[in-house]
Amino acid sequence: MATDSISSRSTTALFWGAGGAVGKIAGQLLVQITLARILGPETFGQFAVVLSILSLGGVLADCGFGAALIQKKEISSADVSLALGWSLTIAIVIALVISLMAPFLANQFGDDSLVWMFTVSAFLIIPQAMGNLSTNLLQRDLHMRSIQIIHVFAYTVCFGGVATTLAILGWGGWSLIIAYAVQTAFKVVATYSICRHTLRPRLRGDRALIHFGLKSLANDLTNWSIDNLDRFLIGKFWGLYSLGLYSVAFNLSKAPLGVLIYAVQNIAFASAARLHGNVAAVRKGFQVVLAAMALATLPLFAIVAFESEVVLHIVYGDKWIKAAPYMTALALSIPLISLGSITAAILRGTGAIGTELRVQMVTAVVFFSGFIMLSGFSLAVAVWVVPAAYLVRLMLLLAMIRDRLELRMADMLAPFRGALVLAVAGVCVAALASGLPQATTIGMGVLPLLAGCCAIVLLLTFRFTWFLGAPLAAMVRAKFSAGRLGPAIAWLERGKN
Asked: I need a labelling partner for 102 at 20 to 30 A (CA). Which of 31, 207, 288, 468 fits?
């Protein structure tokens, strides 16, 4: 496929990913707010550990073949059969192992009711493996429109609708597990109906595909440990109630952009894989997506971290205010997570999967050792391990990709310039507004939050091109100049000089 065609499809996929992310974010916030007001912190703590086990099973069952299929230039039905055979075999084995280990796992968290939750949930890994294969094939061809529509409906209607109904009926933690099962079943059927592929499994095939898959699996396992190790350690050292508070705070922090991060990461990986060898094209794409993600995360989450107690009070109510110290640290982690995920995806797409693996292993060690050393302190102190670990990860990844893409230091710093200025300005305005006598009485204390956000929007309006940077501004101009947004883009760019 020609470079121009891939770049065009990548841009279209990026906008579909962003559009789908907006829809899922709205649904996710609605579902989480509703469930948090019905269920308590301990129930969310139970679901957090069960979901971590499910995600581990999903990673093992995928066996790295998802990334291998996306990365390979040409694939055949034999390759798909190979991926399917290994995924189903490993999924069945993992499901049996988890069900046998359920009493031991439940004992680690001091909650016997987790035994049956682990046992039943383990067998969801099998259909999850099927759905992941179909989704990976759709991602390979950058069919983000179909993926986003399926995911938005699956989460909002299948998970949210079922979970809310069962929670109201008093099913507790089981309401979340049953809803997850319904969501998984829908995604399997929907993705396969769009991407029909062979259902004949096999265990022998292209050794290069297996080799890349195993390397990718090692990397995915390290990523899993980074994303989930904190939940296991918090549940063990600080209990399920504290884990529930932490989990909800993290979900609320990540909800506005978690889906977008996932979508952009997959697009970046697929695009970099298809453009592999064209360093100039990958370099340009990296600068654009890094600037876009920095602008989308740094200013917003700096203000959320500063006003974490107000945000929790407005969204979840008074019973979740205890999560405010956790949310401050976790909100500051989101920009680091998003920027690191994009950088890691492009590194993997260019074939540097071993380099990414080494960085992820260092990050996992920082996570594990940090929580172990701080286990004697309160969770409000230990939670700062999270942003520290993700900062280490981002710095190492940027150092690696700088050499890979032959970037100058100025090229590395340029994408962050506008986002950092907007973040500092937003927090300063929010801090000044907090000092006003009316700050705590107007709209449940929302005045400083709104003031900071308005300051960011105004600054972005008056210096649009400067804050976006030349590469991102050029992409936005090219995408929208011929459409209805053309006059608005032209008006915003009036301050570029």
From this structure: 31
